[in-house]
Amino acid sequence: MPRHIVCLTFDFDAISGFIARGMTTPTPISRGEFGVIAAPRILALLGRYRIPSTWFIPGHTIATYPEACRRVAEAEHEIGHHGWTHVPPANLSREQEEAELLRANAEIKRLTGRNPRGYRSPSWDLSPHTIELLLKHGFLYESSMMGHDYLPYRARQGDLIELEKPAVFGQETPLVEMPISWTLDDYPHFEFVRTATTILGGLKPASGVLENWFDDFDYMTRIMEWGIITYTCHPFVIGRGHRMLMLERLIEKLSDRGAVFLTMEDAVREWLERRSG
Ligand SMILES: [Zn+2]
Q1: Burial of 101 (C-beta count, 10 Å sphere; 0-12/13-18/19+)
Q2: The overall pTM is greater than 0.70
Q3: Ligand 1 centre and the CA of 190: distance in Å?
Q4: Do β-strands 199-200 and 193-194 pair in parallel, antiparallel, or remain unpaired?
Q5: What percent of the chain has pLDDT over 70?
Q6: Minimal CA–CA distance to 11: which of 76, 75, 74, 77?
Q7: How many CA atoms lie within 13 A of 269 on its CB side?
Q8: How far is the centre of ligand 1, averaged over its atoms, from the C-alpha of 79 (Å)?
Q9: What is the pLDDT of residue 233?
Q10: Cβ(118)–Cβ(265) under 8 Å?
Q11: CA distances to 18, 28, 122, 204 from 21, in Å
Q12: How many angstroms does the Cα of residue 18 sit away from the middle of ligand 1?
């Protein structure tokens, strides 16, 4: 029997992403605050269709908006680790990165009663230490890399990558990678960001993004007997009206094509069982 799994994931950054980039004046902060307005709308939509999902929430968001995060936990969505601050691990020392891991673990445990099983790095950039630290602290899976579109794989440790030499790949580890893609992330499609040196245009029509996102699922059903596709949304991005309607249409179209919605943890466990069976 073919089985095509969808993981809907929500990175509940709220204001933490703007703070990590030094954008602490009132308007960028308010832009992040909109995520707290949008989160209950997303929860209501998921509830209406009885869809489990995974929310990667920075410790900063949990500590700043405990009530909004409690609602996510009470609706029994999985809560994953997304840093304490939203600073990418590639910008931290090993000691800072480990301190962030532990601090956000404690925050999530206070919220849900257990440590998170999954980790997604802020801005999807891992450090050379991340895999080792996630294994040390008992994580089951990681979701920041892009090495496949429809299948998990084992994260490697100790790659030697040098400019003028062939790459030497390190050993596979027990940590499961749940790959993602910028094409399946709402942020680059929709957000308009202007800094002193760059402009991210964003503001694409939601209908075009919906078509791309559905077609990536449709292609999976044509070439894979079993597979997983992961979509990444941010409440402050997807929460705008036309995008919420796009998310609802996506859920309907995927359901009509036989999609099975799972949390990331459940999808990982199913993949592990298939490999051992
Ligand atoms: Zn984030």
Answers
A1: buried
A2: yes
A3: 15
A4: antiparallel
A5: 100
A6: 77
A7: 7
A8: 13
A9: 98
A10: yes
A11: 5, 10, 11, 24
A12: 10
In the reported structure, the alpha carbon of residue 220 is separated from the centroid of ligand 1 by a whole-number distance in angstroms of 26
Based on the number of CB atoms within 10 Å of its own CB, is 162 exposed (0-12), middle (13-18) or buried (19 or more)? exposed
Tokens of 163: 């400019």
Pairwise CA distance, residues 263 & 137, whole Å: 21
pLDDT tens for each residue of 65-111: 999 999 999 999 999 999 999 999 999 999 999 999 999 999 999 99
What pLDDT, on a 0 to 100 scale, did the predictor assign at position 258?
97
d(CA 179, CA 7): 11
Instruction: Mention every residue, 6+ apart, whose C-beta is less than 8 A from residue 67.
Output: none
Beta-bridged to residue 202, according to DSSP, are none
Extract the tokens encoding 34. 């909109």
Residue 223 C-alpha to ligand 1 middle, in angstroms?
31
Structure tokens at 47: 């509830």
> What spatial distance separates the first Cα and last Cα of the chain, rounded to whole Å?
15
Choose among 23, 5, 6: nearest CA to 236. 23
Q: How far is the CA of 272 from the centre of ligand 1 (A)?
A: 27
Dihedral (Cα; 107, 146, 43, 3), 10-degree rounding? -120
> Backbone phi, then psi, for 168, in 5-degree steps?
-115, 115
Q: What is the DSSP string of 26-83?
A: HHHHHHHHHHHHHHHHHHHHHHHTT---EEEE-HHHHHH-HHHHHHHHHTT-EEEE--
Quote the tokens at residue 19: 């703070």
User: Rounded to whole angstroms, what are the CA distances from 18 to 33, 64, 99, 120?
Assistant: 10, 14, 21, 17
Yes or no: say if 223 and 4 are a contact pair by the CB < 8 Å rule.
Answer: no
Distance 163 CA to ligand 1 centre (A): 30
Structure tokens at 127: 């450090």
